[in-house]
Amino acid sequence: MSKNICIIPARMGSSRFPNKPLKKIMGKPLIQHVYHNCLKTKLFKKILIATPDIEIKNFCKNIGADFMMTSNEHTRASDRCHEAILKLEEQGEFYDIITMVQGDEPLVKSAVIDQITNSLLIDNDILCANGFGEINNEDLIDNNCIKVVKDLNNNAIYFSRKEIPSNPKLSVNVGKQICVIPFRTNFLKIYSSWSETPLEISESIDMLRIIENGYKVKMVPVEGIFHPVDVPNDVKIVEDILKN
């Protein structure tokens, strides 16, 4: 039986949105919404928050969440998860699959996390997967929304923050990335051994490192309303969704 871990990478945020993980949504910090959704999943031996920040460490202690302190040098969440996995292995903990759930996705419910992770449990040939969510015209022109085009076998062709393709068929040939990303642990180690790639740097999207190195990212269609908290204005949008 596969032994799996869910890791939530989180850091305090940029100058445009400082303290983002601890921003209150419906009276509860953003990262706590994500953590509680992960706790309700059924496939994981451990739920862990990986962070370089003392503020998030203290928050984890306050709510009794497992955490791992990581380097402040990572530019990609996937590399932060890789560091956490290596530290766990040094402590004698080994996992077959690591599912990364971005700490800014409060609307991603436990069933969706399990659904995307299950794709690797069902098909041994899948090394990495992402959620493929419905997209609307507003998402299409929003640079904070990561768009993905896929092939006829549900493998990602390209991810972009810009509008793609030139004649989009919403949620058919283009959808939005839902940042629940299971890796086979051995493949995550391979991924982190590669240097950052040109398109990855240009778009600031982890998954392009995989595509540029000739590997596949399986897109798993998921249903639901998803809206990550990227900028301060997203807080009200997410609160309105939660209220309704």
The averaged pLDDT comes out at 96
Within the largest sheet, what's the order of strands?
5-4-1-6-11
* Rg calc: 17 Å
Element string (H = helix, E = strand): EEEHEHEHEHEHEEEEHHHEH
Overall 3D form = globular
DSSP E strands, number: 12
Per DSSP, the total helix count is 9
Class of secondary structure makeup: alpha/beta
Low-pLDDT windows of residues: none
- What distance lies between the first and last C-alpha atoms, to the nearest angstrom? 39 Å
Helix content: 25-40%
* Biggest sheet statistics: 5 strands, mixed
User: Beta fraction of the residues?
Assistant: 15-25%
How would you summarize the topology of this molecule?
Elements: E1 4-9, E2 24-25, E3 28-29, H1 30-39, E4 46-51, H2 54-63, E5 67-69, H3 77-90, E6 97-101, H4 110-122, E7 129-133, H5 137-140, E8 147-150, E9 156-160, E10 174-178, E11 180-184, H6 185-193, H7 198-203, H8 207-212, E12 218-221, H9 233-243
Parallel strand pairs: 1-4, 1-6, 4-5, 7-12
Antiparallel strand pairs: 2-3, 6-11, 7-10, 8-9, 8-10
Helix pairs in contact: 3-6
